[in-house]
Design goal:
The protein is mostly beta strands and 73 residues long. It has a single domain, classed as Beta-grasp domain (Ubiquitin-like (UB roll), Roll). It is built from one helix and five strands; from the N terminus they run ββαβββ. Strands 2-1-5-3-4 form a five-stranded mixed sheet, with helices on one face. A hairpin with a 2-residue loop joins strand 1 and strand 2.
C-alpha cells in the first residue's frame, strides 16, 4: 500500500494514497473519529462539512486540521 505525506494538526503524518478525508480521520483521530463525534474539519484552511468528508480526497502535502465546533448563539 502506497502512502502520501500530509499534515494533521500541524504534525507530519502519512495516509494511504487515495484516502478520503473521512478515511484519513478514521486513521488519525484517537478513537477513530466516529461520524457523530463533535469534530469540525478543515482541509488546507477550508472548512469541510461532515457530509462532504466521504467525497473529499486527500492529496500529498495537504493540511488537515480538526477542532471542536462552536455552537450556540
Amino acid at each position: 500500500m502506497n502512502t502520501i505525506p500530509i499534515y494533521f494538526n500541524g504534525e507530519p503524518r502519512a495516509v494511504p494514497e487515495g484516502s478520503t478525508l473521512r478515511q484519513a480521520l478514521a486513521l488519525l483521530v484517537p478513537g477513530g473519529a466516529p461520524d457523530d463525534a463533535p469534530l469540525a474539519t478543515a482541509l488546507n484552511g477550508d472548512h469541510v462539512a461532515r457530509p462532504l468528508r466521504e467525497q473529499t480526497r486527500v492529496a500529498a502535502g495537504d493540511h488537515i486540521t480538526t477542532f471542536t465546533p462552536i455552537v450556540g448563539g
